[in-house]
Amino acid sequence: MSSFPLRIGTPDGLLFEGDAERLVCRTITGDLAVLAGHCNYCTAIGMGEAHVVFEDGTTRYAACIGGMLSVMDGTCRVLATTWEWKEDIDKNRAEEAKKRAEERLSRQGLTDQEYANATAKLHRALVRLSVKQ
Ligand code: ATP
């Protein structure tokens, strides 16, 4: 299978630069798979599990939350708000974050903003736990 150049970064720096055979990631309109030869493209990233398949057949999984993805002249660039490789996810921290968010959501009288923040925190924790398991 053909490969394509892939760069993955966050505001904290470059996390990966190299060739990949496939990148799958959740965008705001659904799951996207990028293969070699993909047309020029740009989309906003949603919240979900991502994975990269490499030329040697190995696959790495990650939690990918927010940001932008582009394909330009064959190069795919992911600038994610959060990109955590599976091995870097702290499961206990995600479980604690999930509990805190659920506890907040169970309270009465939350403002719309508080509700939105707690929902987003819960969603992030669920993505991390789903990637980690
Ligand atoms: P928490 O309440 O545990 O901080 P959060 O969802 O509010 O969770 P974020 O604001 O999404 O955290 O992330 C803040 C920073 O901490 C980011 O750099 C993110 O990669 C990192 N981070 C958050 N949770 C985890 C985790 N469970 N494992 C590894 N890194 C994490």
Description:
The chain is of the alpha+beta class and 133 residues long. The chain is built from two helices and eight strands, in the order ββββββββαα. Strands 1, 2, 3, 4, 5, 6, 7 and 8 form an eight-stranded mixed sheet that branches. A hairpin with a 2-residue loop joins β1 (4-10) and β2. It is elongated and about 55 Å long. The two termini are 29 Å apart. The relative contact order is 0.17. The model has no long low-confidence stretch (mean pLDDT 97). Bound molecules: adenosine-5'-triphosphate. Adenosine-5'-triphosphate (ATP) binds at residues 82, 84, 88-90, 93-94, 97, 121, 124, 128.
Supply the number of helical segments. 2
The number of distinct β-strands equals: 8
State the major sheet: 8 strands, mixed
Order of helices and strands: EEEEEEEEHH
Rough outline: elongated
- Decide which structural class fits the backbone: alpha+beta
Overall residue-averaged pLDDT value? 97
Strand content: over 45%
Unique bound compounds? adenosine-5'-triphosphate
Distance between the termini: 29 Å
Low-confidence stretches: none
Radius of gyration: 16 Å
